[in-house]
User: Fold this.
Amino acid sequence: MYYCPKCDQKIPKERLEDVDARLRERFGVDRLSRLRCPVCDFELIDMDKVRAGGERHVGEIRRQSGLP
Ligand SMILES: [Zn+2]
Assistant:
C-alpha cells in the first residue's frame, strides 16, 4: 500500500501498475512509476515499510503541510 499524506490517498500495490497505465494513457502522467503522487507530485510512502505507529508520523507531515 502506497500513501500520499498530502492528498490522503491510498494506492494498493497490486493496483499500482493498473493505475499508472491508466494515468499515462489518459493524462500522460508517469509520476506513479517514480512513486510520486499523480495529483500533487509528493513522494508516496510505502506503508509496508512504515513501522507500527508510523501512521502518526504520516499525520504529522500532513499537519505541518497546513492541510485540513
Ligand atoms: Zn498527493
Summary: The longest strand covers residues 2-4.
